[in-house]
Specification:
With 259 residues, this protein is mainly α. 54% of the residues lie in helices and 5% in strands. Strand 1 and strand 2 form a beta hairpin.
Length: 259
């Protein structure tokens, strides 16, 4: 009787542990951890300053950049895939190879030399129309595409500038995009009524995602886009991560391990 009871209790505990560990299942991937290690603190800081829900911003960045693995993101630091304004430098058309073995675009000249010619398929790629956050004189050119790969300071400046643009040029009351304009007014009203702490709730993050995407004339018109962003936010545990770092003052590694 006692043995059966012990087995039952053990089964329940193991099941609970398994469910708990799988709740934030995307945290098991090292490239996901590295991406959020680089960007979470900046996203929280800018979100507090400009009244934006940080977990949703981080989820959008993860989706749009492939957790920083997309070649446009790696070259430009444009982790949110923001289009260039008229005054901005945008990434031009590039003649780059695709590795059949790695299934990815290679842009670093040092890396290209490591691949056998038969593995590479070269192609002229269209202008990305995305803002290039590399510093002058490289922004908007085909030169030094690998610059941010080897300079962590410049990479940090580029990704932070991208996050700042989203807050100050995109989600603003003066935006010509109705979805952005309405989201800005809504957020300001909510913060005025309930304080900046509301930006860290799951509900506000979910609603923000729904407001700015998944319909025409929005950040991304595809109906599947909000679902993908919400999935990343859930599986990475971005609401909890940002809460742990902001309210509990945990450093990133501690908060990431706090599942």
């Amino acid at each position: 009787m006692r043995t059966n009871m012990f087995v039952s209790i053990l089964f329940i505990l193991l099941s609970f542990s398994s469910l708990n560990s799988s709740e934030f299942s995307f945290r098991k991937y090292n490239h996901v951890k590295l991406f959020y290690f680089d960007n979470t603190a900046d996203a929280i800081e800018l979100s507090i300053k400009y009244n934006l829900p940080p977990a949703s911003i981080l989820a959008i960045a993860g989706l749009e950049s492939g957790y920083g693995s997309g070649y446009v993101s790696q070259i430009t630091g444009n982790i949110l895939s923001l289009g260039a304004f008229k005054s901005d430098r945008e990434l031009p058309s590039l003649y780059l190879p695709y590795s059949k073995s790695k299934k990815m675009v290679i842009f670093d000249p040092k890396e290209i030399k490591k691949y056998p010619k038969k593995d590479l398929v070269w192609k002229q790629r269209d202008k990305s129309l995305k803002r290039d956050y590399r510093p002058s004189p490289y922004a908007g050119t085909t030169k030094k595409l690998e610059l941010l790969l080897y300079d962590d300071i410049l990479k940090k400046q580029a990704t932070r500038a991208c996050l700042n643009d989203f807050a100050t040029r995109w989600i603003v009351s003066s935006s010509n995009v109705r979805a952005f304009n309405e989201a800005r007014l809504w957020l300001d009203k909510v913060v005025e009524e309930k304080g900046k702490e509301i930006l860290f709730t799951k509900e506000i993050n979910l609603e923000f995602i729904a407001k700015i995407g998944g319909h025409p004339h929005s950040f991304n018109y595809r109906k599947t886009w909000p679902k993908k962003v919400k999935l990343i936010m859930k599986k990475v545990g971005l609401v909890k991560l940002t809460n742990d770092m902001y309210f509990k003052l945990m450093n990133f590694d501690t908060a990431w391990s706090n599942k």
